Amino acid sequence: MNARNDFLTGIGLRLLATFLMTAMSAAVRVTADTVPLGQLIFWRSFLALFPICLYMVWWREFPSALRTKHPRLHVTRSLLGIFAMAMFFTALAYLPLANAQALGYLAPILVLPLAAFLLKEKLTVHIFGAVFFGFTGVLFLLWDAFTLPSEGALIGVAAGLIFAFTMAFVRVHTKTMTQTESSASIAFYLALVGSVVGLATIAFGWITLSTTMFGWLALAGFLGGIGHIVANEATARAPVSTLAPFDFAGLIWALGFDVILFSTVPGPMGLIGVFAITFAALMVTFLGPSTSKPVEH
Q1: DSSP class per residue in 247-279
Q2: pLDDT tens-place string over residues 244-270
Q3: Over the stretch 51-81, which tens digit does the pLDDT of each residue have?
Q4: What Rg, from alpha-carbon coordinates, does the chain have?
Q5: What own/partner pairs with CB < 8 Å and gap ≥ 24 does 60-66 have?
Q6: How confident is the model over 203-217, as pLDDT tens digits?
C-alpha cells in the first residue's frame, strides 16, 4: 500500500513540477530575446537559491542537507543541467513556448531506454503505449516549428533537440543521486553552480534590467527553484519510466501560456497534439504499475 501511495504521490508531484517549470519557461521567454544568455542563467539560478534554502529550513535540513560524500556527482549533474538550461533558453529565444517545450519533451522518450539500461527499470506495455501517443502529439506540435518563417527557428530547433538529449542523461543521473542525496541538496548545488557560471559571463556584457524585466527574471528564479525540488521529490518516489509520460502535460500548460501571454492561438495540428498527449497521461493514470504486464527484452 505504501508503494502504491508513493507511486501516486510521485505522479502528483511530477504534474505540479511540470506546471511550475512551464510557468518558469514562460517568464524566461518574455526576456529571452533581450537579456544575454549568461545573465539569464545567473538570475534564474541565483534567485532559485532562496526558495531552496527556505525549503531546507522548513524541513530542518539546513545546513545538514548540504553535506555530501559525492561532490563529483553534484558537479557533473550541475554542469549538465546548466548546459541543458542554456540550450532551452536559446530555443525559447527563437521559438514559441509550445514549440520549444515540444522539443524539450522528446527527453522522456530518450529516458526510457536509458532507464532500462542504466537503472534496470522494467518497461511495461502501457508505458510504451503512452509514450507512443505522447510522441505522436509532439510530432504534431513540432510541425509549426519546422514551418516558421523566422531564420532563427532552425537555431531554436537545434538547441531544443540538444536540450532534450542532455535532459535524458540528467534525469537518469538525478535518479541515481536520489538514493544517497536529498532533493534539496541536488537543487541547491545546481543553482549554486549556475550562479557562478552565469556570473562569469558578466565580462561578455550584461544589460541594465528594467523593473519589469527583473520582475520576470525573479519570477523565473523562484518558480524554477521550487520546480526543481518538486521534480526531484517525484523522481525519488516513482520510476523514471513511469513518470516520463506525465511530462507531456507541460505542453498543455505551454499552449495556454502562449495564448494568454503571447497571443499565439494553436492551430488544428496543435490541438491534435494536445489531445494525443492528454490521452497518454490519462492512459498511465488509470493503468497503475501493478496491473501492467512487463515487456520482455
Answers
A1: GGHHHHHHHHHHHHHH-----HHHHHHHHHHHH
A2: 777 778 888 898 999 899 888 767 777
A3: 889 888 887 888 887 888 788 888 988 999 9
A4: 18
A5: 61/182, 61/184, 65/182, 65/184, 65/185, 65/188, 66/185, 66/188
A6: 999 999 999 999 999
The residue assigned the cell 525559447 is 92
Which residue shows C-alpha cell 536559446? 90
DSSP the chain: -HHHHHHHHHHHHHHHHHHHHHHHHHHHHHHHTTS-HHHHHHHHHHTTHHHHHHHHHHTT-TTGGG--S-HHHHHHHHHHHHHHHHHHHHHHHHS-HHHHHHHHTTHHHHHHHHHHHHS-PPPBHHHHHHHHHHHHHHHHHHHHHHH---TTHHHHHHHHHHHHHHHHHHHHHHHHHTTTS-HHHHHHHHHHHHHHHHHHGGGG---PPPHHHHHHHHHHHHHHHHHHHHHHHHHHHS-HHHHGGGGGHHHHHHHHHHHHHH-----HHHHHHHHHHHHHHHHHHHS-GGGSPBPP-
Q: What is the arithmetic mean of pLDDT over 152-163? A: 85
Least confident window among 3-7, 125-129, 274-278: 3-7
The pLDDT assigned to 33 comes to 86
Provide the pLDDT for residue 118: 67
Taking phi over 0 as left and psi of -120 to 50 as alpha, with beta for the rest, 68 belongs to: beta
Q: How far is Cα 114 from Cα 215, in angstroms, rounded to an integer?
A: 38
